[in-house]
Design goal:
The complex is a heterodimer. By secondary structure, chain A is mostly helical. Chain A has one domain: 3 helical TM bundles of succinate and fumarate reductases, CATH 1.20.1300. In chain A, 64% of the residues lie in helices and 0% in strands. About 6% of the residues of chain A have low confidence. Chain B is of the alpha+beta class. Chain B is 35% helix and 14% strand. Chain B is built from nine helices and seven strands; from the N terminus they run ββαβββββαααααααα. In chain B, the strands form two sheets. A five-stranded mixed sheet of chain B has the order 2-1-5-3-4. In chain B, a hairpin with a 2-residue loop joins β6 and β7. Chain B is elongated. The mean pLDDT of chain B is 93. Classes of the chains: A mainly alpha, B alpha+beta. Chains A and B meet through α1, α2, α4 and α8 of A and β7, α2, α7, α8 and α9 of B.
Chain lengths: 256, 258
């Protein structure tokens, strides 16, 4: 393809019989830093941290299903999390180790997403001036940045609501998980917020759960056709579970 | 039996790289439906020249879908609404009488507009220069089947080698990424024994140059849908896998003490 160039063409190399040399000398860095410097590497980080967060989100949903067994079971489960590995490690230490891992995963996931977004915006500084007609991109894949932002904002609210201070309902008791959930989600606008945020989470998870296989290079005709089904199943299960909680509270299934 | 179409074109006109550009509306009556899209543009251009106006500049060469020179974003789709074909293989029978067709050049920072619908795609050449070849002296032609290659592997390498470097993947990608192009160029050599020796330096060098010019992959799959050769995004996964291995092996620094 010999398109005329507008800028003076860089000095041509003496042809393809030359031995391939690195494009440029770079400072040698540890493997992971070197990898993270590239956008393919950042996608690995997106996929790995995304998978960790998926694991958390799934466990969180399954754990919350205990609320259907009643206050004693549910609060007992919350206490069990604080007592994880207790004779070996002091109370809450295991939980905090997991939280540190989660926070790190979140930070990396968001940083990688932010820097990739900037790279991508730079890669098409002048946008298409006419309407694009997408063929393969899904609603989920095209809204990842927005659903991601919604989830992050919701997460802050959610932590204030049920972990830190409560958000102005009856009264917030640390450790009285069942009562707090019931009090907070009995408010219709709050329940609606939880439902909307969890639908956004489901949409985000759908693209993520499929996309991570590609980013990690896990591509094999043996399981390729299952990747989309896994994404449907996983995001569907998490969304169904999570959305059921505010509905159950409003319907009086979960009630003090 | 051929019928004729009366069309309205909304074409991107840009006098040069520094011009801001605008859409011009050009009436195109009496277009035969067995013309290709490029033949339709030829007819429109002849009329423009006869009317003393500037013809539309667009890229084209072989007009049989093998050279990768033609481009065009047609109604928001790279190479138009037909799957697995380049613009030159798209026929006017795909359009309806009275339709308005919007034609825009490929948009990417690495593809600056030269004029009208013509863009400079030489950034793709930079990627190929970084490793899209085999450096070993090959000598005389070896006997057929001297190097055994499993049939499915040869087929996969051949499917990747079908890439005609048109840049539709970049144009269609919402991120302006060239991962499908690079992955195809990496795979058609990396899958074969001849390419094996430079497998890791190739993927590392080509991806690094790709990232100097283009965006990153978010797995939309638009590139695969736009590709006139229907190259699969499976190759992107393959490239990602080889890139990680290359970084892990760190062969660039093999035997070089700090």
């Amino acid at each position: 393809m010999a398109a005329p160039t507008t800028t003076p063409a860089p000095a041509r190399r003496p042809g393809p019989t030359r031995i391939a040399t690195p494009a440029r000398e770079r400072r040698r860095s540890p493997f992971l830093v070197e990898l993270y410097r590239s956008s393919v590497g950042k996608k690995y980080v997106m996929a790995i941290t995304g998978a960790l967060l998926m694991g958390f989100v799934f466990a969180h949903m399954v754990g919350n299903l205990k609320m259907y067994l009643g206050a004693a079971e549910y609060d007992g489960y919350a206490d069990f999390l604080r007592r994880l590995l207790v004779p070996i490690l002091p109370r809450t230490v295991t939980l905090w180790l997991m939280r540190v891992g989660l926070i790190a995963a979140f930070a990396l996931h968001i940083h990688a997403a932010y820097s990739l977004t900037r790279i991508n915006h730079r890669a098409r500084a002048v946008k298409y001036q006419s309407r694009r007609d997408y063929v393969a991109a899904t609603y989920a894949s095209r809204t990842m940045r927005w659903t991601g932002i919604i989830i992050t904002l919701f997460l802050v609210w959610h932590l204030f609501d049920l972990s830190w201070t409560g958000t102005g309902y009856r009264s917030f008791y640390r450790g009285a998980v069942y009562e707090n959930v019931d009090a907070s989600l009995s408010r219709i606008p709050v329940a609606a917020l939880y439902i909307v945020a969890n639908l956004a989470l489901g949409v985000h998870l759908f693209h993520g759960a499929w996309s991570l296989f590609q980013s990690l290079g896990w591509n094999n005709p043996r399981f390729n056709r299952w990747r989309k089904w896994f994404a449907y199943g996983f995001s569907g299960a998490v969304t169904l579970g999570n959305v059921s909680f505010p509905i159950a509270v409003l319907a009086g299934v979960v009630s003090r | 039996m051929a019928s004729t179409l009366n069309l309205t074109l909304r074409v991107w006109r840009q006098d040069g790289p520094d011009d801001t550009g605008r859409f011009d509306t050009i009436e195109a009556p009496g277009i035969k439906d067995d013309m290709s899209f490029l033949e339709m543009l030829d007819v429109v251009n002849e009329r423009l020249i006869e009317a003393g106006r500037e013809p539309i500049t667009f890229d084209h060469d072989c007009r049989e879908g093998i050279c990768g020179t033609c481009s065009l974003m047609i109604d928001g789709q790279a190479h138009g609404p037909q799957r697995g074909t380049a613009t030159c293989q798209l026929h006017m029978r795909r359009f309806a009488d009275g339709q308005t067709i919007t034609v825009e050049p490929w948009r990417a920072t690495a593809f600056p507009v030269i004029k009208d619908l013509m863009v400079d795609r030489s950034a793709l050449d930079r990627i190929v220069e970084a490793g899209g070849y085999i450096t070993a002296e090959t000598g005389g032609a070896p006997d057929a089947n001297l190097i055994p290659v499993p049939k499915p592997v040869a087929d996969a390498a051949f499917d990747a080698a079908a890439c005609i470097q048109c840049g539709a993947c970049v144009a269609a990608c919402p991120n302006g990424a060239a991962n499908l192009f690079t992955a195809a160029k990496v795979a058609h050599l990396n899958l074969l024994p001849q390419g094996e020796a430079e497998r890791y330096s190739r993927v590392e060098n080509m991806v690094d140059v790709m990232e100097d010019h283009f965006g990153s992959c978010t797995n939309h799959g638009e590139c695969e849908a736009a590709c006139p050769k229907k190259i699969s995004i499976d190759y992107i996964a393959l490239m990602n896998k080889d890139y990680l291995r290359a970084k892990f092996k760190n062969r660039r620094y093999l035997s070089r003490n700090p």
